[in-house]
Amino acid sequence: MAYSSSPVRAIVDLPAGMIRTGALVDAAEAIDGMANQAFAAPVAAKILKLSRWAAPALAGYNAERMEIVRRYGVATGGEKYTVAPDLVATYNAAIEGLRAEPTAAPPADMMLRISAMGDVQITPAALARLESFVRD
After folding, report:
1. How confident is the model over 38-82, as pLDDT tens digits?
2. Is 112 helix (H, G, I), strand (E, B) or coil?
3. pTM of the predicted structure, to 2 decimals
4. Hey, where are the domains in the chain?
């Protein structure tokens, strides 16, 4: 995932075994949000493995996102940035382009199976975010 100077990256079809970076980020954040919930041991192990698997890609995404923030934003103190109104559309396009980049999908044997999660309570919104890490 290298940031290009083009704020929009047109990627229509993804090769097999690939997902969009934004889908990976959303799923990784949802997995991290599940880290303190109790699950049956096999499900907990998969959640841990998925979290560890996604960590390098998530770190890379966050580094590239911060490059974009610094490029279009003005530091307002600490790690806070403000994007000037005339640059908001360009900034948003750059972030969306980064999220559209292809990245590897988790290996099939690492994916969560809804049928194996038993009676775990999960919201449809959380399930939608996890979609790239689910294979049922």
Report:
1. 888 888 899 999 999 999 999 999 999 999 999 999 999 888 999
2. strand
3. 0.81
4. 18-133
